[in-house]
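We close this part of the discussion by returning to an individual protein. Part of our work consisted of pairing the sequence of a single chain with a tokenised description of its backbone. What the numbers capture is local backbone geometry rather than side-chain detail. The amino acid sequence and the backbone structure tokens for this protein are reproduced below.
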Amino acid sequence: MIIPNTVLLIDEFAFYDNLLTSIIIPGSVSSIKHGAFLENPLTSITIGKNVKFADNVFYNEFNYYYNRNRRRAGTYIYINGEWRLQ
């Protein structure tokens, strides 16, 4: 799924349980609310720099990994139970 670059905010539970495996979140998005992508088997997330998250936005601890990597823009891949920045 590609989110349009006109989107500034992703609201609570916006894409909850939609069987998404890959998403592209443009740099225009500055904030993602609680539960927006929960219950999706995501294995690829392309995201802009410095996006702020509420708690429990993604499954598989992506929030933690993105923050730990100083909120760097890029494509993150989930492999063998771990997120990696490509």
